[in-house]
Design brief:
heterodimer, A: alpha/beta, six-stranded mixed sheet, four-stranded antiparallel sheet, 36% helix, 23% strand, B: mainly alpha
C-alpha cells in the first residue's frame, strides 16, 4: 500500500506540489489527471524518488521513503517500482535484450542464464517476439513503448508508474498502450499509478482518479463519482477534454467502441 | 539600482561558481561509486574503444604531419643560419615528447572523444535515460562516469606515447629525404640529448589533461538542458572549454615540473 501525506515539492520560484494526500491500495489503478505543467510528472518522480520532496511523507508498505538520503536505501526502495517513461527512455546504445534485462542485473540476483527466458517472457507479455537483437532506433514508437513496458516489469515490481503513457501517440497506438497497461495490471497483479492528461484513459481503466490543480488534488474519486464532481476545475477540465475529443470525431471519447464508459472498470 | 556591468559580471561569477560546484559534486559522486561498486568492465572497454581506439587514426595523422613540419621548418631555418640542418632529431623529439605530443593529442581527443561523450550523456539526460538508470537500480555515476574517467585516463596517455613516436618518425622521414640528414645522425641527436625525464615531463601532464577532459565532457553532458539544441550547445561548450583548459593547465603544470627539475 502507498500512502501519501501532505506531499510538497518546490522548484525555484514555483510551488509545484503544495499539499497532496492520497492512499493507494495494492492492486489499485490510480490516475492523476490535469493540464500540462501542473506537476503530474513531479508527483510520480517523487514517489520513485527521482526527486526528493520538500515536505510530507510517502509511505510504501509503512516505510517513509520521502526522507531517505542514503543512495543504497533509495535504490532498495526503487526495487518495488517499475517506471514507464513518456518517450520510453530506452538506452540507444543497447539492444532490446540488453534494455529489458538491464534491471535484472541491478535489481535482482537472478543468474544470467535465466535472462533470455525472462526477456522472451516479458516481450511476449507486451506482444513482441524475435526483436531481442534490434536497437531502439530500429523500432516504431509503439514498439518502443512495448519494450519500455517489458523493461519496467522485467524485475517483477509491485507497482508500475506510468508517465503520460499515451501522450503523442496516434489513436491506434493509444489503444494498444491502454490494452498493455490493463493487461500488465491484470496478469501481473500490480498496482498502477498513471499520470496523464488523457481523461478517457484515466476514466476507463482507473479505480481512483485524482485531479491535480494548483498543487493540490481537487478530488480523489472513483471514475463514476469523478465525472459527476461539482468541483469547477474538474468540470472545466472534463468539458474541455470532451470538446477536444468530440472535435476529433469522437476518437478516444469515454465509452466508445465497445469500451467501458466512464466509471467502467476494464 | 543595479549597475549593468557589475550585475553582468556578478552573474557570470555566480554562474561559474555554480558550474564548478556542480562539477565538484559530480566528481565526488564518481569517486564514491568507483570505490563502492564493482567496475562496469564491459562499459569501460566500450568507452576505451570509443575514446582511445577510435581516436588512433586522427591522432596518428596529426602527430605525423606535426613531426614532418617541425623537421622541415627547423631544417630550413638551420640551413639559413648555419648552412646545414643541425639537431633536427633533437628538436623534433623534444618538441613532440615535451609539448606537442601531449597538447595536440589532448586537443584532438577533446574535440573528438570529448564531444562524443558530452553528446551521448547529454542526449541521455534530455531523453530521460539518466532517470531510467536510477529506476533500473544503478547510479549514473557508476554506469556512465566511472567507465569514461577510466577510459580517458588509460587511453589518452597511450595515445600520447604513440603520437610522440609517430611525430618523431614523421620528422625522421623529412630529415632524411628532404634535408639529407643521415639517419644515424637523426637518432644520435635524439638519444644523446634526451633522457627519460624529458619523456616523463610530457607523459605526466597527459594524466591531468585526461582527467580535465573527462570532467568537462561528463559535467557538460550531465547538466544538458533543452532538447537537441541543448545537446549541441553543451557539446560546443565542452569542446571549447576543454581545449582552452588544456593550454592553461599545460603552462601551470610545465612550470611546476620545470621547478621540480623534470
Amino acid at each position: 500500500m502507498i500512502e501519501i501525506k501532505n506531499l510538497a515539492k518546490n522548484f525555484p520560484g514555483r510551488d509545484v506540489l503544495r499539499d497532496l494526500s492520497c492512499r493507494i491500495e495494492d492492486g489499485d489503478t490510480f490516475s492523476v489527471i490535469g493540464p500540462s505543467g501542473t506537476g503530474k510528472s513531479t508527483f510520480i518522480k517523487c514517489i520513485m524518488r527521482l526527486l526528493k520532496p520538500d515536505a510530507g511523507r510517502i509511505l510504501v508498505d509503512g516505510e517513509d521513503i520521502a526522507s531517505l538520503d542514503d543512495e543504497f536505501e533509495i535504490a532498495r526502495i526503487r526495487r518495488n517500482f517499475g517506471y514507464l517513461f513518456q518517450e520510453g527512455a530506452l538506452f540507444d546504445s543497447l539492444t532490446v535484450f540488453e534494455n529489458v534485462s538491464f534491471g535484472l542485473r541491478y535489481l535482482t540476483d537472478i543468474p544470467r542464464e535465466e535472462y533470455p527466458r525472462i526477456v522472451a517472457e516479458k516481450l511476449s507479455l507486451v506482444g513482441l517476439e524475435k526483436v531481442e537483437h534490434l536497437k531502439p532506433a530500429e523500432l516504431s514508437v509503439g514498439m518502443k513503448k512495448r519494450v519500455a513496458l517489458a523493461r519496467a516489469v522485467a524485475a517483477g515490481p509491485k507497482c508500475i508508474l506510468y508517465d503520460e503513457p499515451t501522450t503523442g501517440l496516434d489513436p491506434v497506438t493509444t489503444e494498444m498502450v491502454t490494452d498493455l497497461i490493463v493487461s500488465a495490471r491484470d496478469r501481473l497483479k500490480v498496482t498502477s499509478i498513471l499520470v496523464t492528461h488523457d481523461v478517457n484513459l484515466a476514466l476507463r481503466i482507473s479505480s481512483q482518479v485524482a485531479m491535480l490543480d494548483k498543487g493540490v488534488f481537487a478530488a480523489v474519486e472513483p471514475p463514476d463519482r469523478f465525472i459527476k464532481s461539482e468541483n469547477p476545475a474538474i468540470k472545466e477540465f472534463l468539458e474541455i477534454s470532451n470538446a477536444g475529443h468530440n472535435g476529433c470525431g469522437g476518437q478516444g471519447r469515454p465509452g466508445h467502441a465497445g469500451r467501458p464508459g466512464p466509471g467502467g472498470r476494464h | 539600482m543595479k549597475h549593468p556591468v557589475s550585475s553582468r559580471v556578478g552573474g557570470q561569477v555566480l554562474g561559474l561558481a555554480g558550474e564548478l560546484g556542480a562539477a565538484a559534486l559530480m566528481l565526488k559522486s564518481a569517486v564514491f561509486w568507483f570505490f563502492k561498486s564493482r567496475l562496469e568492465v564491459r562499459e569501460t572497454m566500450k568507452q576505451s574503444v570509443k575514446i582511445g581506439v577510435d581516436s588512433l587514426g586522427v591522432t596518428a595523422l596529426t602527430s605525423f604531419f606535426t613531426g614532418m613540419v617541425l623537421a622541415l621548418q627547423t631544417g630550413h631555418t638551420s640551413k639559413n643560419l648555419f648552412n646545414e640542418p643541425l639537431y633536427i632529431g633533437t628538436l623534433v623529439a623534444f618538441s613532440m615528447v615535451k609539448e606537442l605530443g601531449p597538447v595536440l593529442t589532448s586537443i584532438v581527443v577533446a574535440g573528438r572523444a570529448g564531444a562524443v561523450v558530452t553528446a551521448e550523456i547529454g542526449t541521455m539526460r534530455v531523453t530521460e535515460q539518466i532517470d531510467a538508470l536510477y529506476t533500473l537500480g544503478t547510479h549514473p555515476a557508476r554506469y556512465l562516469l566511472v567507465p569514461r574517467y577510466i577510459a580517458f585516463l588509460v587511453t589518452l596517455p597511450l595515445l600520447v606515447v604513440l603520437a610522440d613516436f609517430i611525430g618523431t618518425i614523421g620528422g625522421f622521414i623529412i630529415a632524411t629525404t628532404r634535408l639529407q640528414v643521415p639517419s644515424t645522425v637523426y637518432w644520435d641527436d635524439i638519444f644523446t640529448f634526451m633522457d627519460i625525464a624529458d619523456f616523463m615531463h610530457g607523459f605526466l601532464k597527459t594524466f591531468a589533461f585526461a582527467f580535465m577532459i573527462a570532467t568537462v565532457s561528463c559535467h557538460k553532458g550531465m547538466t544538458t538542458k533543452g532538447g537537441a539544441e541543448g545537446v549541441g550547445k553543451s557539446t560546443t561548450e565542452a569542446v571549447v572549454t576543454s581545449m582552452v583548459l588544456v593550454m592553461v593547465i599545460d603552462y601551470f603544470i610545465s612550470a611546476v615540473l620545470v621547478a621540480l627539475g623534470i
